[in-house]
Amino acid sequence: MDTANEIQLVDRSSWSITIVSLLPLWLFSLAIMVEGFPRSPIPLSLAIASFLSAIAIFVILWWNRNISLEFILYCCIPLWLLATFDEIAVSYKNQYIITCTMILTIGAIGYLRSRARWLRWLFLLTGAALTLAAAGAINRNYWDLVSEGGYGTCYPDCLPPADQASPWWMVLFNL
Fold first, then answer.
1. CB 3.0–4.6 Å: which of 10, 38, 117, 160 could bond 164 by disulfide?
2. 142, 159 Cβ separation under 8 angstroms
3. What's the pTM?
């Protein structure tokens, strides 16, 4: 009976480390949502707190040897999304950041839960590649929507109101 309890405790603690290790990824994603137009619903103070909290969690996890340097770099991919989605309207951008972060999360969970080193790297590379490919496609689809709608000459001042614009998921899948 004691052995069964030990196994359950080990499994629970590793899942808790997995969840805590995912926090910086999501906190960075939240932090980059503050930038954009029209004004983002994320307050600047929350974005700064998210960014600093992500760094603090990284330091603690690194200090306790719960994460590796490659995982820290992987979790910084949302900072790259800031540049990719820079000029996209907030009504679209935040959903795209969340979509890309979900892809990154799947890769991160695979990395954190795998035992084989080659499989861990495969999860990281696949998650990063899919995220970067999705971000590029999303960016291209968005700008195609803007130019096809005739908004290219007056962008961003003449975008349709959010309730009249194409839904974000239609732009995501280029429908």
1. 160
2. no
3. 0.81
